[in-house]
Amino acid sequence: MAESTMWWIAAGAMVALELFTGTFYLLMLSIGLVAGAVAAHAGASLTTQLIAAAVVGGGAVLACYFARRRRPGDPSPRSERSVNLDVGEVVQVPGWNADGTAQIRYRGAQWTVIHRPGITPQPGPHRVVELVGSRLLVEAL
Question: What would be the CATH architecture of the domain defined by 78-140?
């Protein structure tokens, strides 16, 4: 079997593994394996193929890592309505404690409510924006 065929089989296996695990970085490594296959098609030596695969795959992983790290802060999954059905609900806060928390009755249970940092809390209606541990993070309406 030709060297390039082995590279293509490895790249396909890496893509299949990514589909099972959902690890995006495996796709970047498979790009490196494709670079090794291209080098094999070009008639490069095995050492050159390995170096091409390592440099391209490693570079793609690093580029992906730094691109994701530099993106502005993605919202926490805890603040998405599809993950937490409390997000977006309106609650009534009768008053705030000196420590910046409040106790409310919500869904038949006692909850501790906190507000966003840097905001002076006011009693009244608030919208739940995130669940932080067992506390509701709210913002005034």
Answer: Beta Barrel (2.40)
